[in-house]
Amino acid sequence: MVIKNVSAQNTEMPSAVTGCKHKGEIYRVKNVSLQNVTAVYRDTSENLTVKQNVSDGSMNDYPEITRISHRYFISHEMSDYYDLPCYSLFLRYAENTDYSGLKTTPRSCNERDELYIEDYIQ
Predict the structure, then answer these.
(1) How far apart are CA 70 and CA 10, in angstroms?
(2) Beta carbons within 10 angstroms of residue 23's beta carbon
C-alpha cells in the first residue's frame, strides 16, 4: 500500500501502522510506503498521560488506535485514555514498511520521541 502526497496542519495525535496479535499469533501489516506525507502539530500546550509500554489489549478499540485505553467494561465515556509515547508514528507488528517519506513537526513543547517501533521486520 502506498500513501502519498498528504499534508495535515494543526494535528493532535500520531499516526499508527500496526498489525495485531490474536491467540498468540501475530498478523503483520506488510509493504506499506509513506511518501511525501507531512503533519504539523497545532502549537499549543500539551496535557498528556503517556504510557511507555503499550499492551496489545489496549490497541483493540478502533477507531481509537492513536489513543489507548483499557477495554470498555461499562461504557465508552467511563474509559480512561492514555497517549501514545511518540508524536509521529507508532509502528508495531509490521514488515517492510518505508516511513522515510513521513515528516512530522511536533509542538514546540514536545517531550515525546518521534517514533515508537516494536516487533518490526525490515
Answers:
(1) 27
(2) 4
CA dihedral 87, 93, 98, 101 (to 10 degrees): -20
Helix extents (H) in 1-122: none
Distance, in Å, from the CA atom of 48 to the CA atom of 115, rounded to the nearest integer, reads 16
Its pTM stands at 0.78
| Nine cell digits for residue 32 | 506499506
Of 15, 20, 87, nearest to 57 by C-alpha is 20
Q: Which three cell numbers stand for residue 96?
A: 517492510
d(C-alpha 121, C-alpha 62), whole Å = 24
Sign of CA dihedral 88, 96, 70, 79: positive
Residue-wise pLDDT tens for the chain (122 aa)? 999 999 999 998 888 898 988 899 999 999 999 999 999 999 988 877 676 666 555 555 544 555 554 444 455 555 566 778 899 999 999 999 999 999 999 999 999 999 999 999 98
